[in-house]
Design goal:
Strand order of the largest sheet: 4-3-2-1-5
Oligomer: single chain
Helix content: 25-40%
Distance between the termini: 36 Å
CATH architecture of the largest domain: Roll
Strand content: 25-35%
CATH topology of the largest domain: SH3 type barrels
Largest sheet: 5 strands, antiparallel
Number of domains: 2
Structural class: alpha+beta
Number of helices: 2
Length: 103
């Protein structure tokens, strides 16, 4: 059954042009989505676990997702926190190593 599906959808050159455009569009979008999520997973796995001490006395514990001249974005258990760099007193890096599961 799968071979008939492949034959009539992919190998059959008599399909209308709109079908070919839809097939190539679907394949291209699938590849683009896979590449974006792969890059996102690599970025998240390389994020640093930090403790950010703000000038108002709050401490934010989480992964440092983005750092700019004006702000920091920290992924905490409560959600993403946008912290202005003017409010940051200290940033401490904690060693949290990703444990690999060996099955």
């Amino acid at each position: 059954m799968l071979f008939l599906f492949i034959y009539f959808t992919i190998i059959n050159p008599s399909l209308p042009l709109i079908c070919w455009i839809f097939i190539f569009y679907s394949l291209a979008m699938g590849i683009i989505i896979a590449v974006v999520f792969h890059a996102l997973i690599i970025h998240v796995r390389q994020a640093i676990y930090v403790v950010v001490k703000a000038s108002n006395g709050k401490q934010y514990r989480g992964f440092l997702v983005s750092k700019d001249e004006d702000y920091y974005i920290v992924k905490t258990a409560e959600g993403d926190q946008l912290i202005l760099s003017k409010q940051v007193d200290e940033i401490l890096i904690e060693n949290k190593v990703h444990q690999k599961n060996h099955f």
